[in-house]
Amino acid sequence: MKSVPQIWKELNESLDFVCYEHKTKSEPYFIGYLNSLVDSQVLHRDILGHLTEDSNISLEDLYHLIPVAEKEMSCDSKTIQGNLLQGYVAVQHGLQDHSTILVKASLSKGRQVTEPQVEFTVEGSKEAFVESLDINLNLIRKRVPVPELRVKEITLGTASKAKVAVCYIEGTTNEQYVNTCIQRIEDVEFDVFSDITLLQQMIEDNSNSIFPQTVGTERPDYVAWALISGQICILMDGSPTAVFAPVNLGIFFISYEDYFLPWIIGSFMRLVRMTSVVFSIFATPLYVAVMTYHGQGISNVFLPTIISSRLNVPFPPVVEVLIMELVIELLREAGARLPSKIGQTIGIVGGIVLGTAAVEASITSNFLLIIVALSALASFTTPIFRMSATIRVLRFPFIIAAQIWGILGIFIVMLAVITHLLRLTSLGMPYLVPIYPFRTSDMFDSIIRSPYSKYHHKFSFFRTSQPVRFNKKKAKLKRDIDE
């Protein structure tokens, strides 16, 4: 086991490590800390303020004098070294005693709570998660002030030592889901966790699937809703995103803003969103299939327009579609990687210029340009970015199959996708529930957003211990004050 001076000698190779001797009439105190991680006010006020030249107190007495909650005494060299790297101050009395006081004095620097940047909403809360785990837990605690809310801390990464918090409501969340989630996180072995998205991919049931099996969000109100519904939330220090599970396929097409609108308007927006996703996936594959194999199915009304638009195009429909799809993907990536103002300009100007030039150069037809533009626009309606990326990738197998087998190829790929979704799970929960296994009682909030009077029961597929939200009969009573 290394002695404390040996530990400090190793750390002294770093410029920001401070180690000095505080002399007293008896044995001196040896103090060490990393200057870049320690708050100087806590150091001088709460620790050094109790040490003077006339000090003749033991290490145990000094431990009780320091007014800091997070402190400990340890002789273990690994514990001392690990805590020093987490912003602790180590205090040792003399060289004979290996006991060391470790006092947390970490310096917290980071941005304040701001508005959501990805999941912006007109109505509802304007607070978003930040990179501080303590602040994020505070945002959740404010919205779920119940004693049953449990937070389990796990440290991951042999190099990064990232703190991960697993949050759930005891007595509501199914214990099997909680145990499965914690076990998967503890079994992960990796050196650096720079963001929670790395952990998100490692704990999913099928890491080879393009369909996400967990949902990431930056909205604390959305996480509060998920916790009360019986789901598990995962936070990581240094990441402004929270991940919750288990989830089903329908959650990825539900915007949390739907719950802030009247149920009829929210249902309409949800149906528009789902219809847009179907159009985005099948529009260009159907164009390739019809133009290649099923031309007889084109109406006489559109036939002259399509023939005239493709009259001078030298490429077959599949090449024409792939060129336009790749151009759209290039514009998306360019807009995402450039600064915001320049990215918006590139997306608008580039789309107009390239679209006009492609039609004038007879690389593509006007008809296909409209279909591709509408398909790209429809894919943006998906609220969750990871599912939006999945839909973008999913179009290409359908296009290739449509070129090889026509509409039959589209059905073959669709059956393959459905088979994959039937086998997919999220923390062991079926991915297509409540469609498969079919549950009539859970359909009320899957396709349409029902009135709040219908939310008297939580989703049964979460298998919560407390499925009832409120009394169904009392919810229907609307008494006036004089009754």
TrEMBL record:
Does the keyword Transmembrane helix feature in the UniProt annotation? yes
Q: Which PANTHER family match?
A: LEUCINE ZIPPER PROTEIN 4, SPORE GERMINATION PROTEIN
Q: What is the protein name given in its UniProt record?
A: Spore germination protein
Output the InterPro entries linked to this UniProt entry: Spore_Ger, UPF0353/GerABKA_families
One Pfam family hit? GerA
Keyword annotations:
Membrane, Transmembrane, Transmembrane helix
- Keyword check for NADP, yes or no: no
Into which family does the record put it? Belongs to the GerABKA family.
Where are its TM segments located? 271-293, 343-361, 367-386, 398-422
